[in-house]
Structures are given as C-alpha cells and as structure tokens.
Amino acid sequence: MLKILGRADSINVRKVLWLCDELNLAYEREDWGRGFQSPRSPEFIHLNPNATIPVLIDQEFVLWQSNSIIRYLANQYTGEKLYSEHPQKRALIDQWIDWQGIELNNSWTYALMHLVRDSPLHQDKIQVENSIQAWTKNMEILDVQLGKTQAFVTGNEFTLADIPIGLSVQRWLLTPLEHPVLDNVQKYYDLLSQRPAYLRWGNNGQN
Known about the structure:
By secondary structure, the chain is an alpha+beta fold. It has helices at 11-22, 42-47, 66-76, 87-115, 125-149, 162-174, 183-192, 196-201; strands at residues 2-5, 27-30, 55-58, 61-64.
C-alpha cells in the first residue's frame, strides 16, 4: 500500500490525496509538518533532504515534490485519462502544472503568509501589495485560458493539471483580499465542485 507523509491540510499533500481518490488508490497517511512530527527530524531528512511535505513511499521507492508525485502516480497506476500519453496533450498538461508551481505559487507566497498565516517575517505592506498584484495578474491569465476552453484548464476533459490549479483557485477565493470579477474562474470552481474528490480535498474550507 502507498504511504503518504504529510498533514492533510497542506495544499501540496492535498494534491496527492485528491489524485488518489480520482484513481481509487488505497493509501496510508502519516501526519508530518506544522503541528505534527517535524520534517526536520533525521528520520524524515533521510527520506527528503529538503524537509518538506509530502513524501510518497511506494514499497521501496521514495519520492518527494508534490507535482513529481502526482505525475508518477498517474504514470504508474493507470492514470492515462488524466495524464495523456500523447506528446502534445501531455506537454500542455505539464505546461499548466509547471505554471502553477513556478508562476502562480510564487506570486501568492508573500500575501498568503501575511494575510492568512500572520507571519512576522511578512509584514512589509509594499511587498504584500506587490504579491497581491502579481497573484491577481496570474489569476487573470487563468481566467483567459478558462474562457478559451469553457471547461477545464487544457480543454473539455479533466486532467492532472486541474488538480494543482483547482487547489490554487480554492486558495485564491478563501484569501481575504479584494477579488476582481473573474467569471471563468468562478465557473471552473463550480465545475470542479461537482467532483466528490474536489469536495473532499479542494472545496473543503482549507486554505
């Protein structure tokens, strides 16, 4: 059975848990991270030198980095419907997964740490505003893309890209800031909310 190390309210752990539900994969999960066992312990560092969650253990195979984990699980456990083997279709899925991990995720970090986590290290108002502006710009990019597809991120079908993007939309909507009207993002959120796994791991009040 798969083992997932990480607390269930982590957005990166929730990527993996959501995919496991979509693929009907059985797993055991252990609480690691904020409020639980420390990922800086020697035991955890042995598995992941970055001291970050999640970590996946599949028998003797150990993997970290959430986007690498979901790609692996889709490849290993008959996830072709979510992660196409067609080179161009897969490239588009990877493009949006990487965009979330690099552009979108990095844009919200300072604002989230200030507005939600109340981090004493993130109290510079100028940097907060810059982060909000960058985050908003990226959400506007997503809104344009969703206007083109009128469904999911890469087209008519739900794919692996919708997992990190869908969780990011939940984070955007829950963070207390002034939100511009993004009709396509809202429609996308409503569409994802028809999926039981998204209701469990995405549209569940966790930020």
